Amino acid sequence: MGALLLDFSAASTQNGGGRQKGFDYDAAVAETYRAFPELKDRLFFYDLGKDCWVHPDPQMQAEIPRRLAEAPGQYDILKNRMEHFKAEKNSCAMYGPDGTRVIMLYTGGDTLAQLGPNADKAQNLQFTFDHELGHVICRNGGRSLDSLTRHENVADTYAAMRHFQRYGLDSPMIAQQILWRAQRVVSLTGMRHAEHFTGFVTEKLLADKDRMGLDKLSIAQTAQLAGAYATQHTPPDMQVKNLASEFNGFQKTLEQQNVQAGTPGLLGAAQDEDGNDESLKSDTAFRALAQTVLATKSADALHWGAKVLDAYMNGLLGATRNGKILVKGPAPEILSGPYWQNIRRTLDVVTAHEKTDNKPRILMANGQPYAPPEREKGPCPTKRMLMARPSLIGK
Ligand SMILES: [Zn+2]
Q1: Residue 348: partners with Cβ closer than 8 Å, 6 or more residues away
Q2: CA 93 to ligand 1 centroid distance, Å
């Protein structure tokens, strides 16, 4: 018993369990090098908010730019990507020169919040740090031709597992993150949201997390489990693409309505800093969403569409961004009145029916390990190109 307790507390300290403080980039990097000492001179971290390299060893910190500049052309590409991601207020993991890896984290307060706009800033940055790290340290964490979404599922699964270790299994933030990702795949035009839709896997993780013994795993063990779990449960590409395209009508109407409403449309205007009204005053687009949810023959579109529609009706989802464009949510009062009362009643009936269908659907979609299609043998030219110069691992 005593030994068990000792083991438990040792793992808890090792994986950062029980800690509750603000995000500290230096500490996060130091923690990573303690867990993976072999990465000290191969994986480098950059702060896009403060424009500096982050390393616990000052000598190494000064050495990083010199080392990367040994391959000048490739260093220029890296610096270009830094400017790009800084302008987007976004973060990413990159292949660097000579087998190195670079994680660029945007630490400004106005970054796109992965856990949703209402989440604590420190938890958001920690999640983004873990997400980018997951792209580098987990099996199948990098982009590949085998699957559109697997690398994002791996990164989100690792970040969610680390989140539960840091903040406890009862943290509501991962459920919020799923809703936030679902809002984007349902509401925004363009396929990039399908690539980042990890809800199928993260929702399954939410159901399984209490049985995984996450608090007893070291960081390296967590990375191993995240890679295996996300790889096993990643859905086929068509499933995610079909889900996104079910909502094309709503996505286009919402975009159109935002243009008519005179959306500021530029990054940085997304927050309500000038007292600008963030919400739409007409329910036209949201009626299109309700019609899709109630008419769809797709179990996935019903499941995710109902979740997002319900959250819009309950005022849980506001504005989001599509690249540099602000997309407003509904003003709370426009989804009321007889039409919306009727939608609410019908949705209750339809989702009650969905719940009874839930089990067979999930078994078909997620319960079977996903076998990627057979590919041609031999070196893949695109992958060789990706490895040869600084390019994106994931973002
Ligand atoms: Zn990513």
Answers
A1: none
A2: 8
